[in-house]
Specification:
Structural class: mainly alpha
Distance between the termini: 32 Å
Number of strands: 0
Shape: elongated
Order of helices and strands: HHHHHH
Helix content: 55-70%
Radius of gyration: 14 Å
Length: 93
């Protein structure tokens, strides 16, 4: 299922793949890990975005397209919300 993180960030998608309800998936994951399914999904997306920023010369636009964000600005907002930095600030540090 890890292969879907670039294009799918909805809990319901992963619940469907596992043949469980989103509510049951959320309950089990939170109970076992202490974190929500959405937090795990977001973490994987942030890790991939960081990897692209540090190891490639892809533009923010290209990374946002690769990770299937609707716009580059929505990717920048997502990244800043989860890291405290814009993608370019992160790349420079």
């Amino acid at each position: 299922m890890l292969q879907n993180y670039e294009s799918q960030r909805r809990v319901s998608f992963y619940a469907d793949k596992l043949c469980v309800t989103p509510k049951n998936l959320a309950k089990v994951v939170k109970g076992v890990t202490g974190h929500s399914v959405q937090e795990w999904i977001n973490e994987v997306v942030v890790i991939e975005a960081k990897r692209c920023l540090k190891t490639s010369d892809m533009s923010v636009f290209q990374i946002s397209e690769r990770l299937h964000f609707t716009t580059p600005s929505s990717f920048v907002r997502f990244f800043r919300q989860h890291t405290g930095f814009t993608p370019l600030e992160y790349r420079k540090k």
